[in-house]
Write a structure and sequence with these properties.
Strand content: 15-25%
Structural class: alpha/beta
Largest sheet: 6 strands, mixed
Distance between the termini: 68 Å
Radius of gyration: 27 Å
Bound molecules: zinc ion
Number of helices: 15
Shape: globular
Strand order of the largest sheet: 3-2-1-4-5-8
Helix content: 25-40%
């Protein structure tokens, strides 16, 4: 009783009411000392106080980080298999998909987000996944990762993802490949990959969001979180690109036709049955499925590519192994030391230099900063855009000399495409880096029936003092429909 009373004095009534005096002692350094003194001499030495540990219920093997409800479908066939093997999985969504379509009802925007959150939870529940969080970012329809990161409140979203990584302590992180490609190329998908990569490199660093790793020392100090730093061991990506060539052999590959021990069905079927819960996104498709028997479903899915192999790209492994090793190869339970990423910024190359800016220069710097220079990315950069819209070529104009310099910009374009602004002379001050842009009106689609043309090259040239100071080439594919640049 004496122990209880003393503890109450330090920790407050709540702990006493719920009857967890011992837990309170474990939490509070000062409380423990007093409690041991109170218990007195020999018995205190014999019985070491038990310190509380992180909540084991939330420790996972795999943390999946995606952007929208239904994105998890990119990995559910593999997740079903991993769960069969006893792995624990948690999922983080960047947004609630509030800008998506709605094939079921009239709800849009915030109301649609509220529905899609439940669809995601129900879809994951079919696989036995219940640990699901949403970062609360705004669904942002563009191909520009920087727009998505801005609209998700990058700093706040990263803080929450680092918190969730420290809470769930994943061995492996799975996410979208951070990069820009011809494909759906959704900026939100890319943002999920960027945040997951940043959190992978930061969650183990005790100086990052230190309030999360500090423990409350006093009563009424509810701002410190008592998490432990955590360094995940591997990060793998799945691309949001049309092309497959540059991802081959860059990571492990799995057949989704293997039969699940638990459901006795192939893993692609687990993925499909989970996807059926996203009715706002695919009601027509789900209605058709509901009228089919298993054999008809199998025939349709084979044609739609649901049964093709699932391939991941290895981002990095801190436990060694080969690129195409199975995901859990080399992973043993227990923490590994935090590795701070070494990073140096490349010095400017010439006196005056013009380079591609926007998401492309961001990704070049991002890959260097996170030791991901091996990640596949298209060379030259590529993008798919809607016919008749505008291509903006963002540029950095760097002048490392002590005098202002004049730079002349010009563009070489496919026939029928025209420069609407940005070509001609620009002046950049001494030791300045300035941003500019060349805007190009795109032509019309020639192959209307197919809905897309072959890729065509756009070249922007920069000259200063009659010599070339930069050449930016982009491959552009015209489509009937595409997200804005
Ligand atoms: Zn998505």
């Amino acid at each position: 009783m004496r122990l209880r009373r003393i503890v109450m004095g330090h920790c407050g009534a709540t702990a006493a009411i719920v009857g967890v005096a011992a837990a309170c002692v474990g939490l509070m350094g000062a409380g423990r000392t007093i409690a041991q003194d109170a218990a007195g001499g020999a018995s205190a030495k014999a019985q070491a106080a038990e310190l509380r540990e992180p909540d084991a219920r939330y420790k996972v093997d795999i943390l999946l980080v995606v952007a929208h409800p239904d994105d998890e479908g990119a990995a559910t066939a593999y997740l079903a298999r991993a769960i069969d093997e006893g792995k624990h999985v948690a999922v983080v969504y960047g947004t609630r998909g509030n800008n998506g379509g709605n094939e079921v009802g009239t709800e849009q925007a915030g109301a649609l987000g509220a529905i899609r959150e439940i669809e995601a939870r129900r879809a994951l529940a079919t696989l036995g996944i219940a640990d699901v969080w949403f970062l609360g970012g705004q669904d942002t329809a563009s191909q520009d990762v920087l727009q998505s990161l801005a609209n998700w409140q990058h700093g706040a979203a990263l803080e929450q993802l680092v918190r969730l990584m420290r809470l769930t302590r994943p061995e492996v992180v799975l996410t979208f490949l951070p990069g820009t490609f011809i494909g759906e190329d959704h900026g939100d998908h890319q943002a999920a990959g960027v945040l997951a990569t940043e959190a992978f490199d930061l969650a183990g660093d005790p100086t990052v969001f230190p309030n999360q790793v500090a423990e409350p020392l006093r009563r009424l100090e509810p701002y410190l979180e008592g998490l432990r730093p955590w360094q995940p061991k591997k990060i793998y990506y799945f691309p949001d690109a049309d092309r497959e060539d540059i991802f081959k052999g860059k990571g492990p590959s799995f057949s989704v036709k293997e039969i699940s021990k638990s459901s006795k069905k192939p893993y692609w079927r687990a993925s499909l049955d989970s996807f059926r819960l996203h009715e706002t996104q695919a009601k027509g498709f789900v209605d058709r499925l509901n009228k089919m028997d298993d054999a008809e479903i199998e025939k349709m899915m084979a044609a739609d590519g649901w049964a093709s192999d699932q391939t991941f790209v290895l981002g990095k492994s801190l436990v060694g192994g080969a690129t195409t090793d199975p995901i859990f190869a080399g992973i043993e339970s227990g923490a590994i030391p935090f590795r701070r990423a070494a990073f140096s910024v490349e010095a400017p190359k010439g006196d005056v230099e013009v380079t591609l800016a926007g998401p492309w220069s961001f990704y070049a710097e991002f890959r260097a900063a996170h030791q991901l220079t091996h990640l596949p990315h298209p060379k030259p950069p590529e993008i798919a855009l809607q016919e008749g819209t505008t291509l903006i070529v963002p540029l950095w104009v760097r002048n490392s000399t002590g005098e202002a310099r004049e730079v002349t910009l010009s563009a070489e374009l496919p026939s029928g495409w025209t420069v609407t602004s940005g070509a001609g002379k620009v002046k950049v001050g001494a030791n300045q880096t300035a941003g500019t842009r060349v805007e190009i009106a795109l032509g019309a689609l020639s192959d209307k029936a197919k809905g897309r043309d072959g890729v065509q090259a756009v070249t922007v040239r920069a000259e200063s003092g009659e010599k070339s100071v930069g050449e930016v080439v982009m491959k552009v594919e015209l489509r009937k429909k595409a997200l804005p640049e």
